[in-house]
Each structure stands twice: as C-alpha cells, then as structure tokens.
Amino acid sequence: MKNETLHKVISSEYKLGFETIVNSDTFPPGLNEDVIKAISSKKDEPQWLLDYRLKAYKKWLKMLEPKWANLSYETINYQDISYFSAPKKAPNSLDEIDPSILSTYEKLGIPLEEQKLLAGIAVDAVFDSVSVKTTFQDELEKLGIIFCSISEAAQKHPELLKKYLSSVVPSNDNFFACLNSAVFTDGSFVYIPKNVRCPMELSTYFRINALNTGQFERTLIIADEGSYVSYNEGCSAPMRDTSQLHAAVVELVALKDAQIKYSTIQNWYPGDENGKGGILNFVTKRGICKGDNSKISWTQVETGSLLTWKYPSCILKGDNSVGEFYSIALSSLSQQADTGTKMYHIGKNTKSTIIAKGISALKGRNAYRGLVRMAKSATNSRNYSQCDSLLIGNACSAYTFPHQEVRNKSSFVEHEATTSKISDEQLFFLNQRGISEENAISMIVNGFCKEVLQELPMEFAVEAKALLNLSLEGCVG
Amino acid sequence: MLDIKNLHVQINDKEILKGINLNIQPGEIHVLMGVNGSGKSTLVKTISAHYDCVVNDGSIKYKDEDLLKLNPTQRANKGIFMSFQNPVEIPGINNMYFLKTALNEKRKHLEKEELNAASFLKLVKSKTSEFNMDDAVLKRNLNEGFSGGEKKRNELLQLLILEPDLLLLDEIDSGLDIDAIKTVATGINSLLDGKRSLLMITHYERMLALIKPDFVHILENGEIIKTGDYSLALKLGKTGFKDIGE
Asked: Is A428's CB within 8 Å of B76's CB?
C-alpha cells in the first residue's frame, strides 16, 4: 500500500498536465499524449493533424527500436528527451559565438554576413534578409510554387498536406519514422505546380526559421506533372545541437514527367574522438516516382553526426521512371555510418543508378547497405550499383551489404564494389613532390569522390569539397 | 650542396647503412654502383626522408642546413627530387592536375606567383614536345595503368617541370629501351647547368656514357668501399663487382 502511494507520487512528477506543458518554452523531458497535444496546440494545428500524431504515437508504443544496423551506441531513453523547445534567444553578435565554430566557418570560406546568419544572429538588423526572403517568395509565388514550413502548410494548404503526408513513408514505416510522425517539430513543404520548372535552387538556408528545427524535422516535396525542382538541405557549416537524438523524415512525390533533385550536406556535430556528445541521426528519406517518366535523384554528403542511419530510397512506380542515389559518407573520429539506398522497381522499363563512396579514417566505421528489388511487373528494368570504400589508417573499417531481388527475367542488375586504402607509399610520393600530407589526402579523397561531387549543384559542390578536407584534417600521423 | 657524415640507417630493425660519408658539391655528378642490397636505394631514400628509413647516427647537411630536421615535403620544396624505382599508382588524381599542384607548391615556397591553368599547360606542352613525349599520359590518372616505360618518362616530366637543385635518380633508366634511355638522358642533361647536382643509381654503362659522372662510388654491405672517376665505372663494366675490392 505504502509502496503504491510512493510510486504514484513519483510517476505523477513526470506526468505534468497539458496546461503546464503547453505554457513552458521548453517542454520537460518525457513523452505521452499530453506532450503531443501540447506540441500540436503550440502550432495551432487542425484536429486531423493532431489525430495523425496521436495515432502514430499509439503505434510507436508497440514498436521496437531496430537493432539490425552495423552500429553500436548507448541505449536511448525516450523519456529523457524534451520534445519541444522554443527558438533560443538569438545572440547579438559573433563575439558571443564559440570561437571554434567561427574558425571552422573561416576555413570553409563562408562570408561574414552568412556566418552571422548561420550562427543564428538576428540578421535583420545586420542586412536586410527579410527583403531578400520576400523578393524570393514573390518570384516563387508568381509561378504558383509553394515553399514554406510544414506548420505554415498545415494552416494554409491543409488539403495538399493531408493528401500527401505519409503517402510515401507510412507513419508506422519504422520505429524512428513513427516517432517523428508523432512529435515532428517542423520542416519544409514544397509544391511545384504542373509544368513549372522551379527557377532557383530551393534551400532550407533561405527559410531562416528552419534553422531551429533540426531534431524531428519533417519535409514533404511534391512535384506535380511535368515540373522540376532542385532542393538543397543543410549546409557545410558545422551544426551543433544540444539534443542528441535526431529523427527526420523526408518524403518526395514526383508525378508524371516530373523531376526532383534532392541534395544534402549533413554536418551535425560528430562528437569528440571518443564519440562523446555526437548527434545520433536516424533518418527516413523516401521518394516515389508515382507517374510515368518521372525521376528522383538523391545526392548526399554525410560528414557529420556520431551515428548515421539513413537510406534515401526510390519507389519506381511509374513506367520509365528513374531513381538515382549518389552518396559520400565519411566516418572519422569515432563516427559510425550505416547508410545506403533502396530501389524498388515496380513500373516497366525503370532505371536506377547507385554510386556510393564510403571513406573511413581514424576509428571511423562505414557500412553501405542497399536493396535493389525488381518486382515481377518491372519488366526490362535496369540497375547499376557501384560501392567504393576508401580506408585511411589502420583503426577504421568499411562494410558492404548489398541485397538484390530480381523477380522477372527481362531485368538486369549490376553491382561493382572496390575497397582501397591510402598507402604510405602514395602519401610519400606526393610529399616527395612537395605536396603536404593534408593536401595529398584531400587530392586522393576528392579524386575518389569525383563522380558524386559532380552531381551536386555548383556552390554546394565547392562547399562539400572544403568540408571533406576539413573533416579529414589531422587524420594521419 | 650535400654533406653526409658517418650515416647509419636501419630499416625494419636491420642496419642497412653503416657509416656513409659523401660530399657533393654544386654541379657535380655522382653515381652509386653496387650489387643489389648494398644500400644504394636506402641512401637516396634517407636523403628524401622516406618513412622506412630510421637514422641512428650521423648527419646530413643540405645547403648548410640540417636536413634531418625537415620532413619529406619541406625537403622537396627546398629542391630535392627523388625519382622512384617503381612509382606508385594513385587512382583518382589526374596527372596534369598533380603536376600543376606540385609546381605551384614549390612556387609558393619560393614566394613566386602560382601559374594558372593556361600558362601551366603551355609550359608542359613545351617540355613534352621538346623531349618527344606523348601527351596522352597527362590526361590519365597519376601512374594508373602506366607501363613501366610510361612511368619512367612521367618521372622525367616531373623532373623537368620541378627543376630541382639536387637530383636523386634511382634507376630512372631501368626497363627503358635504348631510344627512351636517350630521351631520358637528354632530359637530365638539359637540367645539368653546372649548379645543379646529381646523385644517380644505375646498372647501365650506356646511361653513364650519356651522362658522364665526376665520381663513381661503389657500395658494399652499407659502406662506400671505393670511389673513383668515370674510369672506375668502365673497369667495373669489364670485371664486375667481384674483383673491384682488390
């Protein structure tokens, strides 16, 4: 009896009422229905969206965290996490920013004004970012393009959001996607109308309010018939976040004759040499080529996070549709990456290309995990996969887990894999010709990644190169 | 130019060089000869700071500076060039891009302006046409899939572009046909302006006929057992290493 009362008291401490939760800027740690209602209420969401979240939460409670990846990490306690925090007070000047971050900005060659923007300084006072944003929005609006936050879309474009949210990644798709569906904070929403070619690279970068939505990001991009869009997520500047767990979901929908190009540079804090403090990044990204002749292309440069669990995938449903996956994953320090793609060929004459480059240095661990499935209906389809691993030093490792299923006789699947190591003799040769160790490694790594780097939009490629070099600083000798 | 005193070097716990003394003045041409395993390659590798070579004793002075304190890159940028017996293949690095980077690193070191792509291309073309070299290797990745001869000619091209002060050539003539040896020798001679010095390892008399040495050193078991002039090499060609000890 006594014990029961005690138990009640203790557990009630963690069950703060809805009112208390919703009135706080940062929610107390813990997850329950009240917390989800509070998130939804903070965002003034319509009832259907709250119902969607609650349904996902109920499903999530019955799910188990996946353990099949080639990753090891300490158990995550989901009740120790706070699921909402209001944007932090913006610092007033660069003087208030961690000098180590500033020096990285400099090494990456990011201009001063952009540094301020990245550091979250109230830039409006510094330069007229509002007007930049508005001009940009005006131009998009003229074409009927919608580019806003998911929260805004819930208010202004509920019919589109309702139609497509979770149409590619069902809310109970996997443990982390399900958690995201219940508690997602914000993210981007993009709609490109019929036969419109988006005239500029869309980037989270322009959506200034996106900078604080890292933890449970939710993105939805819809390219209507005959349209084209190129979307860039993230940037090369180092991102620090106090919340360790990240679980994002990205959904892409390409209708007939539409094309979506989605590029990512991920540089979340990787932790120190022993992995302390690094971000655990569990991402579900999937696109559907819903209409005939559509195309989805994923390009990613993953250099950050302590842990990366990510498989940007394509469902090639439309006939003649095309899926592409170009990836560079770099694991240094104590980083671990288990990443790859899934290509589901369903339509006739569908084509997919996979080029994955894994780089491991210091104690880094890198795994490529991929699935190519040719359904019975996917006649005359083709896949080409190439997975290359580059090892730097003796304490790192690389793995490849390709999986292929071909259920018809007219399709063709090709897989090539190589593993190479930067040898002491290669480094010495370049040193002897006057090229420093760091330059030598960056030359070899850039050469190794060439095929993927050329898929990135121009400025993004320059950033990615600088980032690769920076991430490998001091990894030899 | 180079002054080596009492140099002791080991590789993998085995002492290879056992007290080498060697002085090379500006403009001099020295040749190292000796049976396989006598320590010739170890000596040139030690001068260029190869990671295998551990110096246990002795000193090396280069242009009056303590060479042993410098890393391979610093030594290279101060004018030391070593040609490799078997140049390593480096996939992913374009040969032309590599050459340009190497030259510009050196120019940076000399506080000269870096060459842009156009002027660099002009420079390379002038060298390849002067020495009858095939431009095709420039477009390929560094040494990747090169034949033995292509690798050696590529070493020569690097030499011609980088114009070092001290040339260390480890069998740059091996595996080449007679015409190619002539090309390589002509290239090397074009650099020898009376100020640059050369330390060369070769087994071939015909190379020595094309590049006449001022000094010939015979290495045996990690020591220089005999030093002479060009005539020593000629004598060696007749009698072999066995009878040279006297």
From this structure: no
CA atoms of B216 and B209, how far apart (whole Å): 13
| A252 close to A260: Cβ distance less than 8 angstroms | yes
Number of separate domains in chain A: 1
Based on the fold, state whether residues B140 and B67 are members of the same structural domain: no
What domain count does chain B have? 2
Domain-embedded: residue B217: no
The single residue listed with the structure tokens 């709250």 is: A50
Kind plus residue range of the DSSP H or E element containing A430: helix A424-432
Closest CA of chain A from B244, distance in Å: 34
Please indicate, yes or no, if residue A7 is contained in any of the structural domains: no
Is pLDDT above 60 for B63? yes
Pair B41, B159 in one domain: no
B196 touches chain A (CB under 8 A): no
The strand pairing partners of A418, in sequence order, are: A388
The number of C-beta contacts closer than 8 angstroms across A and B is 70
Q: Which region holds residue A213: left if phi is over 0, alpha if psi is between -120 and 50, else beta?
A: alpha
Residue with tokens 């897989």: A415
Domain hosting A260: range is 99-471
**Token pair in block for residue B225:** 């057992």
- Interface probe for A, chosen from B73, B103, B155 (most Cβ of A below 10 Å), is B73
Q: Read off the pLDDT of residues B190-226 as tens digits, 9 standing for 90 and up.
A: 999 999 999 999 888 888 989 999 999 999 999 999 9
Kindly tell me the burial class for residue A280, based on how many C-beta atoms sit within 10 Å of its own C-beta (0-12, 13-18, 19 or more).
buried
Whether residue A250 is contained in a domain is answered as yes
Question: Can you give the pLDDT at residue A90?
Answer: 55
Q: Which residues contact B153 (CB under 8 A, 6 or more apart)?
A: B133, B134, B137, B180, B183, B184
The answer to whether residue B99 is domain-embedded is: yes
Which of A421, A429, A433 would you mutate first to test chain B, the one with the most B CBs within 10 A?
Answer: A433
Establish if A131 touches chain B: CB-CB under 8 angstroms. Answer: no
Q: Which of residues 205-244 of B touch A (CB under 8 A)?
A: none
Q: What whole-number distance in Å separates Cα of residue B218 and Cα of residue B239?
A: 14
pLDDT in tens, B64-107: 999 999 999 999 999 999 999 999 999 889 999 999 999 999 99
**How does A125-152 read in b/e, with b if 16+ C-beta sit within 10 Å?**
eeeebeeeeeeeeeebeeeebbbbbbbb
| Nearest-by-CA chain B residue for A429 | B88
Question: Would you say residue A326 lies in a domain?
Answer: yes
Compare CB distances from B93 to A431, A434, A447 and report the shortest one's residue.
A447
Q: How far is CA A265 from CA A126, A338, B74, B158, in A?
A: 26, 16, 35, 37
- B227 in a domain, yes or no? no
**Quick one: pLDDT at residue A86?**
64
pLDDT, position A208:
38
- Residue A17 confidence (pLDDT): 56
Q: With CA atoms as reference, report the closest residue to A431 among B169, B78, B187.
A: B78
A115, A116, A119, A122: CA torsion to nearest 10: -160
R_g of chain A, CA atoms, integer Å: 23
pLDDT of residue B156: 93
Confidence at residue A290, expressed as pLDDT on a 0 to 100 scale: 97
Backbone angles phi, psi at A220, to 5 degrees: -135, 125
pLDDT digits (tens, 9 = 90+) for A130-174: 444 556 777 888 999 998 888 889 999 999 999 999 999 999 999
| Residue-range definition of the domain harbouring residue B135 | 87-163
Report the alpha-carbon distance of residue A361 to residue A338 in Å, rounded: 15
Q: Same structural domain for residues B7 and B77?
A: yes
